[in-house]
């Protein structure tokens, strides 16, 4: 457990710094070009490499590579031959996909931003600007893929830190580039017609250069694996049949998720077309929403995933339910706190990523809708990756298919809402779909693994929620006492951040005090993890 704890803290600390610098990156971008039409065009373009990369790579790497590398490491050469073949194959695929994506840039932009049938999406000028940005951003696909292959290999060999800390370089480079933009061209809202080629070049090149350096920095840590890579095109005999079968289901799973994302993005585009909260507002609300998930679920769940893979590979199946239960309960304790704190501080934290208090209120509504799904997605992280540890990617495809269908259907239904709350409707639909997904996934996992101690999870969750409700109320009361929407916490970016810290701090103090009164057993492992962050450790 101490090894898991140290790995969790290392990942958590790196993720925290990475996400905080990522938030700063978004703040500087909003300061440079605003949060309206031009920003929506850039965010759609910058989303494209992430979306394509997820379809062809992320799910496959998560579901297949770690378990396969763990098994290959048992070979006499420590997995060196397998990993060389894997890197060669991955590089060829990534280069081909990147080239095709760049050629198809105009088609991809239209797919994501032209609106659903019967609705108006981006204007022709906005589509043209997004396409220009896409030509700069789509080469990121190759470097995202390289970063992921190297990082997952490091994780599989229990070298957890570099994969988490490398994105900080990307954020710093982007912040520097966006800051230079403000120096050269000034900040504030930039209408689409005002974006010159020099402006789009600086924004696009800064975003892509950050991803390139992120991958390069991670490669510097490869020596710690003690593996010597070489190009190896002899792919016969490396288990491509098994990898292909596993990856095929995962490919379909990620694909259906992206199809739902296309529907959602097009609905955002219809709101952007009439100057209401669209892609940028929703994207920044999503960044706030995903922050606790990234820090908490990834830091606790990633080491457990490697351990689960080792247990399954060694046939120690009796240890799996205990690991699942511990991971879910410890994760949920902190995720529930995050939900309460962000709900109480929704307006101040949204003000950090907007240009006015009115925009902050709009963004807070979107954030609140996303927060409904924060606890479910935190639990889903562990549940879904347990299937991967068993080399089962077929079952996750089916419960993800259900989630994607619900999310897409509810996003399309959000077109009936007024434009000013349409983005919030899409976010709420996403949360509802995740809740259904995690319930279905847990039922299916119980059939596969046996008893999962779900009653223990639910009792712990009930205890956490019982403490979170008054804690969140105390945080909201603090927000109102500080002036509410018209107070200083919503008056500027800096004061919004300060207000978020104050409100979140009050919420946390009340939450932990109540959990201590309830003698919550999960406080002990969480306290151990938190103490590891202190300098004295």
Automatic annotation (TrEMBL):
PANTHER family reported for this sequence: LIPID II FLIPPASE MURJ
Major site of localization recorded for this protein: membrane
Location of this chain's protein in the cell: Cell membrane
GO biological process, alphabetically ordered: lipid translocation; peptidoglycan biosynthetic process; regulation of cell shape
GO molecular function, one term: lipid-linked peptidoglycan transporter activity
Signal peptide stretch: none
UniProt membrane topology term: Multi-pass membrane protein
Record flagged with keyword rRNA processing: no
Cell membrane recorded as keyword: yes
Matching InterPro entries: Lipid_II_flippase_MurJ/MviN, MurJ
Keyword annotations: Cell membrane, Cell shape, Membrane, Peptidoglycan synthesis, Transmembrane, Transmembrane helix
Gene Ontology CC entries for this record: plasma membrane
Gene label: murJ
Annotated organism of origin: Microbacterium ulmi
Protein name: Murein biosynthesis integral membrane protein MurJ
Transmembrane segments: 52-74, 86-113, 133-151, 163-186, 198-222, 242-261, 281-305, 326-349, 361-383, 395-417, 423-445, 457-479, 491-518
Pfam family, one: MurJ
